[in-house]
Amino acid sequence: MQSIQITAHVNDQGVLQIPLPNHSGEELEILLVYQPVSKPIKRQWSQQFLSTFGAWQGEPLIREPQGEQPEREELL
User: Against a cut of 0.85, is the pTM above it?
Assistant: First the structure.
């Protein structure tokens, strides 16, 4: 028994085509387990968050000097 995993499209007539060129002319027993492909949700910043851009009205924000950083070990 061999297993393959593919993502395929079912046409308008509900037909799914799975080409198996290495098994041409053979009789096969097929077990089909399927699940719909979940489409990723497009992630975006909310409009409420975007409205805060440039909204700071207090004293100017200043980044203080960070000083010298110690040398770190090289990552592998």
Answer: no
Distance CA 28, CA 62 (A): 71
Tokens of 69: 């950083």
Residues 18-61 have pLDDT tens digits of 888 888 899 999 999 999 888 888 888 888 888 888 888 889 88
- Which tokens go with 40? 């990723």
Give the residue carrying structure tokens 């492909």.
37
Q: How far apart are CA 65 and CA 76, in angstroms?
A: 30
Could you tell me if 8 and 16 are in contact, meaning their C-beta atoms sit under 8 angstroms apart? Answer: yes
